[in-house]
Amino acid sequence: MDVLGLGADPVATDALVCSAKGCRSDARWGLLWNNPKLHAPARRKVWLACDDHREHLEQFLGARGFWKQTVGVDDLEHV
């Protein structure tokens, strides 16, 4: 259930690790994104980011027009 109305896919509580290639740091941010060619408009996929990689991952998604919002991992739905 998406109690915050973010439309984001749930994330596994035991896997809150940064999504940057090769990074194993604890994630503090959830980057919500959507590829309009593949996903329904309301769907939000989630990449996780540590403090060091947040900006880089936002820029990567933003350059492709995919980035929608960044929230703290505590604001994401956990499974």
Can you give me a brief rundown of this structure?
It comes from Isoptericola chiayiensis. This protein is of the alpha+beta class and 79 residues long. 13% of the residues lie in helices and 20% in strands.
Q: How many strands, what sense, and barrel or not for the largest sheet?
A: 3 strands, antiparallel
**Strand element count:** 3
Q: How far apart are the first and last residues' alpha carbons, in Å?
A: 10 Å
Mean pLDDT value: 89
Q: Can you list the strand order of the major beta sheet?
A: 2-1-3
CA radius of gyration is 12 Å
Order of helices and strands: EEHE
Oligomeric grouping of the chains: single chain
Estimated helix fraction: 10-25%
| Tally of separate helices | 1
Q: Which class do the helix and strand fractions yield?
A: alpha+beta
Uncertain parts: none
Structurally, the number of domains stands at 1
Q: Note the overall shape.
A: globular
* Fraction in beta strands: 15-25%
Organism: Isoptericola chiayiensis
Protein name: Acetone carboxylase
Describe what you observe in this structure.
This is Acetone carboxylase. The protein has one domain (13-74). It contains 1 helix and 3 strands, in the order E-E-H-E. It has one helix spanning 54-63, and strands at residues 29-33, 45-49, 67-72.
Write the layout of secondary structure elements.
Blueprint: E1 29-33, E2 45-49, H1 54-63, E3 67-72
Antiparallel strand pairs: 1-2, 1-3
